[in-house]
Amino acid sequence: MKFILEASPVTDLDAACLVIGAFDDAPLQGSAKLIDEASGGALQQLIDSSDVDTSWKCATMLHGMQGVAAKRILVMGCGEPKKFDEVRYDAVCTSAGAFLRDHATTTAHICLHEMDRGTLKNSAGEDSQNGPGDTHWRLRQAAVNVDRANYCYTTTKKRKKDDNEPRASVSFNAGKDLQAALDEARGMARGYLRSTELGNLPPNICTPAYLADIAHEIAGKYENVNLDILEQDEMARLKMSALLAVGRGSVNRPRLIVLKYQGKDEKSQPVVLVGKGITFDTGGISLKPGANMEQMKFDMGGAASVIGAFEACADLQLPINLICVVAAAENMPDGNAYRPGDVLTSMSGKTIEVINTDAEGRLVLCDALTFSQRFKPAAIIDVATLTGACVIALGHHASAVMSKHDDLADELLDAGQRAVDRGWRLPLWDDYQPQLKSEFADMKNVGGMAAGSITAGCFLSRFAEDQRWAHIDCAGSTWIWGGDKGSTGRPVGLLTQYLINQAG
User: Which of 24, 93, 119, 245 has the lowest tally of Cβ within 10 angstroms?
Assistant: First the structure.
């Protein structure tokens, strides 16, 4: 979707639809106030008579408003001002985008970023860092969320004749001084779109080879992006036995995909994003139950999000160096598949006793983490749909963040808060490490039921010693489970915001 700035008087815009916001029992603001004045108070009268519902996320479409050139006005309810926090603001923007998607309008002009004037709070009820006066943030979030709501999966699904086409562009009520906000929105939206689409693709299309093809496509777009793809033979020479073991049971051979973006001089240490790219996870010999197994195509959500964040960075041409490492494999059971009881020797030389072949993500990541250290990074951040325990702990609202580096953890959590793609820190204390003790190897690949997400992080920490490293478990945030299943694209927002912050 193309984002356009439009500073003309809102009452003069001949748009198919104007989108404004209104609070409960509060004076109209910005464009809503101008529209009310131009209509001789008609808008306020409709609110007072309850013909316009200002409850949070409620949408009311008005037609033929006097004194306004636009054909229709969409009024989004913002609810009580005292409850209007960052999350509620994002939800209003998303709801507006969904309404526009479902009601065909040729052009839309959005004014929702005007909804603040000192009312915006964070989830703790404190004045938000994104709140009073931060029009840049509100405009960016409005654009990103309208774009995300505009997404419709069609790659393997025929569109119905009466389905509305996704909107090609949308304008915002702002001047050129806010162009930087829309630039950020464009990059972040591009990253979300890439991640969402990759996550939704069926596993017979989105294989390790397909992820490599997507990396080729991205590398071909930007002069300062290079690509290396390690095939099976090269990974074997590097002794990536853990990664290779996971992919051994599949005809779709694993890949290690390495995208390199140079936005600063070569001497500048890069950030390395490492993504778990299990394009389908049967559980291997430790076979998962059949029910809902089709959702295991989403087990490459970590890879999808780091690829999306990488593309966002390249699109924005951020002044940083960034490397994206994707460990791509398919976990299948056959006569050549790895087994419970196997002992694997990782690239690091550390040995791993396989207790459960369904704990495969940490095995591909451990070799990818060892490989990533050759770049002498400023930070390594791995992202993975690693554990069901993370979903039990945090649901679908937050990604788990683990690190022994408080400053890095804080940077990631702050980025997630600003992007409204939130994380929550879990401990990574050495107290949990004994759960990984093995009688036959340096460690087991699982630590038992207790603290399953944390012990998975503890396992990975053993392959990032002496590194400034963090682990993000996005098992709950990267896709919607159940009836309305689908990829969310997360945590692209968190990662992209982190990169923007690193760029200064």
Answer: 24
Same domain for 373 and 424? Answer: yes
- Residue 41: both structure tokens together: 């108070």
Q: Reduce the DSSP state of residue 83 to 3 states and report it.
A: helix
The span from the CA of 465 to the CA of 308, in Å, is: 27
3-state SS, residue 349:
coil
Backbone angles phi, psi at 432, to 5 degrees: -85, -20
Helix crossing, 135-150 with 179-200: angle to 10°?
30
Q: Report residue 73 CA to chain centroid gap.
A: 31
Whichever domain contains 78, its CATH number is: 3.40.220.10
Residues 95 and 195 in one domain: no
| Cα distance between residue 88 and residue 66, in whole Å | 30
Q: Is residue 498 part of a domain?
A: yes
Residue-level pLDDT, tens digit, the chain, 504 residues: 899 999 999 999 999 999 999 999 999 999 999 999 999 999 999 999 999 999 999 999 999 999 999 999 999 999 999 999 999 999 999 999 999 998 877 789 999 999 875 555 555 555 555 544 589 999 999 999 999 999 999 999 987 766 666 778 899 999 999 999 999 999 999 999 999 999 999 999 999 999 999 999 999 999 999 999 999 999 999 999 999 999 999 999 999 999 999 999 999 999 999 999 999 999 999 999 999 999 999 999 999 999 999 999 999 999 999 999 999 999 999 999 999 999 999 999 999 999 999 999 999 999 999 999 999 999 999 999 999 999 999 999 999 999 999 999 999 999 999 999 999 999 999 999 999 999 999 999 999 999 999 999 999 999 999 999 999 999 999 998 776 789 999 999 999 999 999 999
Query: 3-state DSSP call for residue 375?
Result: helix
- Helix intervals (H) in 151-273: 179-200, 208-221, 232-237, 241-247
Distance CA 402, CA 410 (A): 10
Domain that holds residue 383: 189-503
